[in-house]
Amino acid sequence: MPPPPKILEHVVHAFDLTTDDILGRARTKHIAWARQVAMYLCREALGYSYPEIGKCFNRDHTTAMHAISTVAAYMRRDVVFAEWVTTILSDLNAPVRRFHPVLHAD
User: Fold this and answer.
1) What is the CATH code for 5-90?
2) Where are the domains of the chain?
3) What is the model's pTM?
4) pLDDT averaged per 10 residues, the chain (length 106)
């Protein structure tokens, strides 16, 4: 089960990546962060379960749990990022908006 195309479209465009990057095995910081955001959007916008999200991204459900928790925590610390995500969540049919993130740092 692939992720919903509209979510992929938003994330791929916003992070200047390809669908193959998001769905692939690469774990570079930029790609992993974009993938985590896509997982978060699947959970929040569509109510997908952790196992469903894991299947969408060819990952384990615990990876999806970690991704969603990480994005939610970052949203609490970065108001601009949180507003960007909220905008996408409010209307996934809106034109794709580009976000220029500072690399996610843990």
Assistant:
1) 1.10.1750.10
2) 5-90
3) 0.84
4) 86 94 95 96 93 95 98 96 90 58 54
